[in-house]
Amino acid sequence: MLLRDVEPADYDAYVALRCDPAMMAELGGPQPLEAIGPKVAKDAADAAAGTSWIKMIVLDETYPEDVAGAVTIWRDHHGGEEFSEIGWMVLTAYQGRGVGKRAVAMLLDAARADGRWGPVHAFPGVTDAASNGICRSLGFDLLGPEEIEFAGRPFAANHWVYEAGV
Ligand SMILES: CC(C)(COP(=O)(O)OP(=O)(O)OC[C@H]1O[C@@H](n2cnc3c(N)ncnc32)[C@H](O)[C@@H]1OP(=O)(O)O)[C@@H](O)C(=O)NCCC(=O)NCCS
């Protein structure tokens, strides 16, 4: 598995990840198509600048344009506090095979080695069994349920934090 920076050419992968009702069922619903161009451009710029780690999940390094999903670490604000947050998505065709868990573990390892991210928080939806499973099995601690905002919408999440090795 390869994790590589998002690029503007990942537009189609972003549409597949963010505009599909099934993919976004636990994330407040699909995003409008017109939001994707600006989003992939901003994410590619942020990734190139290193301000966020926005990684496309590639299963066969020979074909880095073939994307199975995405995993991202960024700095965010919640209730006046700033901290590192991680999020993940795996395309439906690749789900249920350990791809999400492995990609998240790889990015957490890289974050720990880098040293600048500190504790990493995650906010999967309360009914998102797979994402809560990733948190539980990778050693996140559950702080409890919390209402947050995702893509401009209110969202019932579980608040987890990963402090292993920090
Ligand atoms: C959440 C998501 C990334 C999981 O990816 P995945 O590659 O299918 O997950 P994995 O196969 O690595 O499984 C991760 C864990 O969840 C468990 N799991 C997977 N699917 C599950 C399901 N439908 N119900 C219950 N548990 C599930 C696995 O058994 C595994 O736990 P384990 O290590 O204890 O066995 C994927 O479902 C997805 O992209 N969903 C839509 C986007 C989204 O909601 N992202 C959440 C952002 S926080």
UniProtKB/TrEMBL annotation:
This is N-acetyltransferase domain-containing protein. Residues 1-166 form the N-acetyltransferase domain. CDD domains: NAT_SF. It comes from the Bacteria. It comes from Catenulispora subtropica. InterPro entries: Acyl_CoA_acyltransferase, GNAT_dom, N-acetyltransferase.
